[in-house]
Amino acid sequence: MQTRERPLSPHLFIYRWPMTMVVSIGHRLTGLLLSLGLVVLVAGLVAAATGPGSWERFVAVFASLPGRLLLALLTLAFFFHLANGIRHLAWDLGYGFEIPQANASGWTVIAASVILTLVYWLAF
Amino acid sequence: MARVTFRTPMGRVLGSGSAKSGTGHFWRQRVTAVALVLLGAWLLVALMRLPGFDHDTVRAWLDRPLNAVLMILLAGTAAWHSSLGVQVVIEDYVHQPLARVTSLILSKFVHALLAAAAVFAVLDLAFGAAA
Predict the structure, then answer these.
(1) Which class is B25-127 in CATH?
(2) If contacts are CB pairs under 8 Å, which of residues 16-55 in chain A contact chain B?
(3) How large is the ipTM?
(4) Would you kindly state where each structural domain of chain A is located, as residue ranges?
(5) CA B25 – CA B30 distance, rounded (Å)
């Protein structure tokens, strides 16, 4: 059967990702990261309850360079998910649906999450 | 070979409609989200204000009733919100029926375990004898 060359639906590799799409994927990704963060939090609480020895081991893991990098990543994920979560709540109330507004709020989420992460780590 | 059925179209659809809980997931996700804005902000500020991260300091911090209660609320709400979110991700990407149901149930079990462990650990720190 002869098929005509017709335009295909957006192909992910030749399609310029809209920023709003990246932020949307980022929300899901940071959400999954924060599930890992919950595991870290609970591990810390259980280690503290178990006793000083296991608590010291928990602290040692997160005082190491890979541990610090993970905490920094989790902080960034937290602020991103927080900022974009508030953006979603505004949408739920019916605000900010116009494309220019969605673009502006998306960039705000990106900027806010980076700035808040830096401020938090510098102020700590 | 198609099985012959004498049931009317109306008879087939009656009772197989909505389970009347369509907006429950949505609402729980939003309400836990609002709670986590407040509880998350509390945790970040509290961690920053801790004078140190030695066992005695952390223990004394969670020994204070308000901190223990907020930590239990935070862990419980975060586990709930995480459970709702991971559920959506599984529903979106895992299509094989057995793998889908298994991973959904497994996710609920893990989240329940995390919540229970957090609550027990905080209560142990607050009420238990100093180790």
Answers:
(1) mainly alpha
(2) 28, 31-32, 34-35, 38-39, 41-42, 45-46, 48-52, 55
(3) 0.88
(4) 33-63, 65-124
(5) 9
